[in-house]
Amino acid sequence: MRIFMFLLNKLPCDARSVALHALLLCDAGRHSQSALDQAFGRSGLDLRERRLSAELFYGTLRTELRCGFLLGCVLPKISRLPRPMAHILNLAVYSLLFVRSLPAYAVVHCAVMQTRLLYGAVLARVANGALRSLQRMADETVDQEFYLRSIKGEIIGHEAKWRALALYYSLPFWIVDLWRAAYGEENALGLMRRSFKRPRVGLRVNLLHPQGRDLFAALRNAAPQDQVCPVSACGLAYASGALPFEALGSAISRWVERGAVSFQAAGSLEVLERLGLADWNRPVWDCCAGYGGKSLALLEQGVAVAFCSDNSHSRLRHLSGQCGRLRLPRPVICLADSVRPPLSSWAGHILLDAPCSGLGVLSRRPDIRARRAVADMPAFAAVQDKLLRKLSEVLACGGDLAYITCTLNTAENELAVERLLHAVPAMRLVRQWQTPHDHPWMEGMFGALLRKG
Fold first, then answer.
1. CB-side exposure of 379: number of CA atoms within 13 Å?
2. What local confidence, expressed as pLDDT, does residue 153 receive?
3. For position 39, which CATH number holds?
4. What average pLDDT does the chain have?
């Protein structure tokens, strides 16, 4: 990684170079948002350039497998290219196919220039030839039939169609196969389409704020009805590009500073409502709190979140400041792994937003697509089983355990609940919910409300 950072110092600090830096950080294991935040760092990019950089970064991640396949059609030895150069080419292919505001000649020129600065004239000519070839065939690549024709010699019959669709929607074959087996082919196709779309921007309005209810109404009316959708009692989800810059005379950023608005994915708010957690009337322990989004949403609805723990200090450290910004009571905060609970008993309710494979949020976390493997999956289910059983032991009789994931994998969702109910007869299922497979844009969330005794 240090070698890559040394190379990046040779490039001008612009939107493309920052996106390249963030992609390399993802390769090193960083979460996509964390990678982009670090890449922005002290880059000094203005707002327009930062937006372009974010568009290139997230878009390239979302289409990475498809762009890589297309490059392989014109560069048979693409796997031998240095990783930064492969990213430079992927960024360029994404720009050529999906960013109409960028002139094709400029896209090719910038990619060739970056390659020349890093690797010299020979590889710069390779980059130029590959991108010129793809530029000539760009119209073909928007058609699903192109991908079917390209692989027919390798795979035949019905499976060829699904492999072509996986390439078109930029998904690993194993995810497509998992969804087909679990949910059927019609649902699997819908999930593939949904995962390829740009995610909606979710806003959570703090209805405890003096202007909260007026602000919610203003924000709801600030975009066309087909571009904004209410989510739960306090949330709004905006289509890409529809988020208003201001409401009630102030910029959205100012409302965030005043504690009236927070950004939160729509699916996270929806699952809390579907499980009925706003009705909880006992103290709540959020045992995998992360950045605390779900705890903050519950606090804003008057739920007594008393204790928050997580095994990541980098995530948990933000929670106290968020409570201050929103003028909410601050829970007790503890750095702890709930596989080994920091408490021997809990008399209230427990919220378990479990670590999971994230297959329900591939549009929002596109870095997962090419960086998660089928071999990783059993480990998630094993950790979830440990968490569920340990927490069910700690939970007092009459208490609820809310189990939430953001994945589309029955082994981590329905079957995890079944395994718990079989292993711990004292637990019973009160209700269960999953984002409908035919929902056009919402994240794939799963939730189960379990009660002890």
1. 7
2. 65
3. 1.10.940.10
4. 94
Q: Which amino acid is at 396?
A: A
Q: How far apart are CA 262 and CA 326, in angstroms?
A: 9
Under the banding of pLDDT at 50, 70 and 90, the label for residue 2 is: low
The pLDDT confidence band at residue 40, using thresholds 50, 70 and 90, is very high
Whether 301 and 162 map to the same domain: the answer is no
Chain centre distance of CA 33:
9
Q: How many residues does the chain have?
A: 453
CB proximity list for 202: less than 8 A, separation 6 or greater: 231, 235, 236, 237, 238, 263, 264, 265, 266, 268, 269
- The tens digit of pLDDT for each residue in 210-269 reads 999 999 999 999 999 999 999 989 999 999 989 999 999 999 999 999 999 999 999 999
Please indicate, yes or no, whether residues 39 and 88 belong to a single structural domain of this protein. yes
Look at the chain and report how many structural domains it folds into: 4
How many Cα atoms are found within 13 Å in the side-chain-facing hemisphere of 49?
A: 14
3-state secondary structure of 411: coil
105 to each of 95, 116, 132, 208, how far by Cα in Å? 11, 16, 9, 52
- Pair 120, 213 in one domain: no
Q: What is the rounded end-to-end Cα distance, in angstroms, of the chain?
A: 52
One domain, residues 386 and 439? yes
- On whether both 42 and 73 belong to a single domain, the answer is yes
Letter string b/e over residues 65-77, b meaning 16 or more CB atoms within 10 A of that residue's CB: bbbbbbbeebbee
Q: Which domain holds residue 418?
A: 267-452
Element (H, E) at 227: none
Q: Is the pTM value of this prediction over 0.85?
A: yes
Quickly count: other Cβ atoms within 10 Å of residue 252's Cβ. 19
Tell me the CB-side half-sphere exposure of residue 341, using CA atoms within 13 A.
20
CB 215 within 8 A of CB 260: yes
- Same domain for 83 and 169? no
State the burial class of residue 366 (Cβ atoms within 10 Å of its Cβ: 0-12, 13-18, 19+): buried
Residue 327: CB atoms within 10 A of its CB come to 12
Query: Are 279 and 426 part of one and the same domain?
Result: yes
Whether 300 and 411 map to the same domain: the answer is yes
